[in-house]
Fold:
Amino acid sequence: MKIIESIPEFRSLRQNLNGSVGFVPTMGYLHAGHIALVQEARNQNSTVIASIFVNPTQFGPNEDLESYPRDLEADTVALKTAGTDYVYYPTVEDIYPPTFDTYIEVGSVTEPLEGRKRPTHFRGVATVVTKLFNIVQPHRAYFGQKDGQQVIVIKKMVNDLNIPIEIITVPTVRESDGLAMSSRNSYLSERERNAATIIYRSLNEVQSLFKNGQRDAEKLRETMRNVLTSEPLAKIEYISVADTDTLNELSVVENNAIASLAVQIGKTHLIDNVLLIQ
Ligand code: AMP
Structure:
């Protein structure tokens, strides 16, 4: 496995690759969720490229850019073990030189849920993903269902801008008690970590209600809310049962839906979702 840090070096390497290229963009501090994306990319492509870049433009002014966990050494070992061929590890100066002044704004799917509290977040995500796509030029790119709105935003962008890359979604990888793996889980104290199990219990409950035939979206949201409010450490940020393409809130689930939630536990913002599929 080779680590590449400069754009010219990457470009010349890319010209010499034959066959399909699978790309896994990450912010590092890798866990089994990221590795599942790499494994899926490995199964489907001749070459697997991962990137590690803590993207400043997707963090708001009061968010955790400075304290975001980093461990390049452990990440390198994990990526190598999972069969990655190349790791692209760009510098902030290369991605955002002082003259940089172009951003990608995806429309209404960026407004609800995460977009409400973090108004510039998806602009940062869409911009960096476009730049990474242009540098890496993959055939397929892999994203986790864990960040459900992000997948919807990226698919919308790729479709609207005719970007010739197939977007593959990989199911959420969970801890044994159901908590979705996340680099941000490392912020949780033991007490908060225990409290965080309420998230999956709430999603489990909504999923079983849906399986039992409940299609009234407000009833589904209410169930999630009731479970979450039983945990005093979990401060609800949003609860949603929405269309899987537009993220419009539903009143009745006619086909499929995405049930999403965000809570704040201590200082940590945690998100999760499940698909409600007929
Ligand atoms: P991040 O490093 O948090 O930007 O995540 C990089 C990629 O890994 C994104 O596509 C995430 O959705 C995905 N990812 C993060 N956590 C998980 C998880 N628990 N299961 C599956 N994919 C994940």
User: Anything to note?
Assistant: Strands lie at 2-4, 21-26, 47-52, 86-88, 140-144, 166-170, 234-242, 257-265, 268-276. The two ends are 42 Å apart (CA to CA). The mean pLDDT is 98.
